[in-house]
Amino acid sequence: MRLGAHMPIGGGIYKSIERGEGIGCESIQIFTKSNRQWTAKPLKKEDIEKFIETKKKYESKIFPIFAHTSYLINLASPEKETYDKSFNAMLIELERAEALELSYLVYHPGSHLDKKNPKTGSEKGIKRIAKAINELHEKTEGYKVMICLETMAGQGTNIGRKFEDLAQIIKLITDDSRIGVCYDTCHSFAAGYDIRTEKAYNKTFEEFESVIGFDRLIVFHINDSVGELNRRKDRHEHIGKGKIGKAGFKLLLNDSRFKDLGGTLETPKGKELAEDVENLKVLRSLYD
User: Fold this and answer.
1) Number of Cβ within a 10 Å radius of residue 12
2) 180, 147 in Cβ contact below 8 A?
3) pLDDT digit string (tens) for 216-275?
């Protein structure tokens, strides 16, 4: 697996690549704007050019380079104002990712918000997500960037806890060549998908292959979990210090099916990125 981490973009979006190279990343994830704001000033031409220039400089070392959308976006929302704002924000995210020539855009499916009728709420939310993505695809015809639905922990009314949720969304996408999946190890563990033993690991990925298919699995988020299995708690922990433990990551990293996929850390870190350096060291020590 091409291991790396989510890199900050402060001081210039191109610096994310330089930071990644500086700590030995083989892939990186970034936000192309503040992840806590709906909109952003358009990217300046010189910023786009500098980013692409830096990306090409390190293209043999760092790939894929991909983005994550704002956490505010909720295309599953039944509330018109939120849905409309989310649609427009997602369009901005796609436009920015395409301008920067990024491969993928990772996206949290969203929350249906219907606590009284979770089954019906989920079904309606899935349809809203698919409708939005189909319309976004129409507005961005010819774009190369692919939306990757992320596996979720399942807290609240979030969609994406079950592999079936993502499979249903994908089934409703007209141009399914532009849709993939990001597997988050912490989220999926919190949702009940165990990878700590060979038996559990095989069961989880046999189910993934059966329900979604490995052809849809594009990137990984590599995070240990603060919470126990199936607790639906979305809290990331440093590698080997959480409830998944080193054994689960050893199985994942030595799985030849995922050899060339990007796997980025989203674990807590300080400005100097020392935690990323240590986590990458731990992960690489697990290779056979």
Assistant:
1) 13
2) yes
3) 999 999 999 999 999 999 999 999 999 999 999 999 999 999 999 999 999 999 999 999
- Rounded Cα–Cα distance for residues 130 and 109 (Å): 10
Cα 264 to Cα 269: distance, rounded to the nearest angstrom:
13
Q: How far, in Å, CA of 93 to CA of 183, rounded?
A: 20
CATH number for the segment(s) 2-284: 3.20.20.150
Looking at residue 117, the DSSP 8-state letter turns out to be S
For residue 111, give both structure tokens: 């929350």
Tokens of 275: 């935690």
List Cβ neighbours of 144 (8 Å cut-off, separation of 6 or more). Answer: 98, 101, 103
Contact 14, 47 (CB under 8 A): yes
Task: Tell the burial category of 191 from Cβ atoms under 10 Å away from its Cβ (0-12, 13-18, 19+).
Answer: buried
Token pair 């030995």 is found at: 24
| Active site amino acids | 36, 68, 71, 108, 150, 184, 187, 221, 234, 236, 266
Name the residue ranges covered by the structural domains of the chain. Answer: 2-284
Q: Which two tokens stand for residue 187?
A: 């989220």
Structure tokens at 244: 């998944």
Half-sphere exposure of 83 (CA within 13 A, CB side): 18
SS3 state at 12: coil
